[in-house]
């Protein structure tokens, strides 16, 4: 269901600021609302952001430092146009893959985008696994973000053993979907994998395979291919653990209020059972949290009444980042 755009304009006022022992009647200062969707790679962040955007009038800002680049849609698991379901997306596949998109670049561009979205009376939803970019935006040195915005953090969590199994399956699916052919144009004989989209997991791992592809026999190529795929799986699992560690730091050290949604049971199911588990364990609880955040009201059952997750999607297909 769609909530009135007007309700997304609710803000938290700050009035009667004391100064030199006197109370000043200042013009009401208001804060806009921003939602963050966090989690390790493969947990379903993109799916949840779309579910929320179909419940609240929203636009989505990508905060994945690799998905921001053009190209490598399979390797970087960009959400497809079909999966976006008409929801506007920003900073997704927009940057030159040969240049370096820094945390400062993200802060500048996302700040402008947030302001543009709120001016359209829409809710900005920032989604992605690059927690260092999100941290740089929220905890900027001059306190600019927090002075203008209230934010709500949702964390889609999946137990590591379950997630590791899913990640391995996902890499196999990427291979079947044409990952090798997509990677081939990005092979660099100079092996400069320190900037741009070539930092993506998958590009450096296939360097040796492409380097020797034209000279080795079929047995050698098959061996190198298997080693490259195994390395992609290993490095993706390492990335997931690193991302999880950063979320724990933000929650336990920096004391961010982060709402955890345990999606582990979803990944243990298939088909319609998985969809139903996602709705009950992730989508509906998230919508309730966001509704309370937006409307400052504990009675939010009517907001998510009739909330539905499309049955044609499965977790294996839709957990795209």
From TrEMBL:
The lineage of its organism: Eukaryota, Viridiplantae, Streptophyta, Embryophyta, Tracheophyta. GO terms for molecular function: AMP dimethylallyltransferase activity; ATP binding; ATP/ADP dimethylallyltransferase activity; tRNA dimethylallyltransferase activity. Coiled coil: none annotated. It is found in: Plastid, Chloroplast. This is adenylate dimethylallyltransferase (ADP/ATP-dependent). One of its GO terms (cellular component) is chloroplast. Its main location: plastid. It comes from Clitoria ternatea. Pfam families: IPPT. Belongs to the IPP transferase family. Involved in cytokinin biosynthesis. Catalyzes the transfer of an isopentenyl group from dimethylallyl diphosphate (DMAPP) to ATP and ADP. GO terms for biological process: cytokinin biosynthetic process; tRNA modification. InterPro entries: Dimethylallyltransferase, P-loop_NTPase. It is an enzyme of class 2 (transferase). Its EC number is 2.5.1.112. Signal peptide: none annotated. It catalyses: dimethylallyl diphosphate + ADP = N(6)-(dimethylallyl)adenosine 5'-diphosphate + diphosphate; dimethylallyl diphosphate + ATP = N(6)-(dimethylallyl)adenosine 5'-triphosphate + diphosphate. It comes from the Eukaryota. Keywords: ATP-binding, Chloroplast, Cytokinin biosynthesis, Nucleotide-binding, Plastid, Transferase, Transit peptide.
């Amino acid at each position: 269901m769609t909530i009135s755009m007007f309700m997304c304009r609710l803000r938290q006022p700050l009035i009667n600021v004391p100064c030199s022992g006197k109370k000043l009647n200042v013009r009401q200062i208001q804060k806009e609302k921003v939602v963050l969707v966090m989690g390790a790679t493969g947990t379903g962040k993109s799916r949840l952001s779309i579910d929320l955007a179909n419940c609240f009038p929203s636009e989505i800002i990508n905060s994945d430092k690799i998905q921001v680049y053009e190209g490598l849609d399979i390797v970087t698991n960009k959400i497809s146009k079909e999966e976006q379901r008409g929801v506007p997306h920003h900073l997704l596949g927009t940057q030159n893959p040969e240049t370096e998109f820094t945390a400062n670049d993200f802060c500048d561009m996302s700040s402008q985008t947030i302001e543009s979205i709120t001016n359209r009376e829409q809710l900005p939803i920032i989604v992605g696994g690059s927690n260092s970019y999100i941290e740089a935006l929220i905890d900027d040195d001059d306190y600019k973000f927090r002075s203008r915005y209230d934010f709500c953090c949702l964390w889609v969590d999946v137990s590591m053993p379950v997630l590791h199994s899913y990640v391995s399956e996902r890499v196999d699916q990427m291979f079947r979907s044409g990952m090798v052919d997509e990677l081939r144009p990005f092979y660099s004989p100079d092996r400069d994998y320190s900037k741009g989209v070539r930092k993506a997991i998958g590009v450096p791992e296939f360097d040796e395979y492409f380097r020797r592809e034209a000279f080795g026999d079929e047995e050698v190529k098959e061996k190198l291919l298997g080693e490259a795929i195994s390395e992609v799986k290993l490095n993706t699992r390492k990335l997931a653990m690193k991302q999880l560690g950063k979320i724990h730091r933000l929650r336990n050290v920096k004391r961010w209020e982060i709402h955890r949604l345990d999606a582990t049971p979803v990944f243990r199911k298939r088909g319609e059972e998985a969809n139903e588990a996602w709705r009950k364990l992730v989508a509906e609880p998230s919508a309730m949290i966001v509704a309370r955040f937006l409307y400052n009201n504990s009675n939010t059952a009517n907001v998510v009444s009739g909330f539905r997750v499309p049955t044609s999607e499965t977790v294996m297909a839709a957990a795209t980042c």
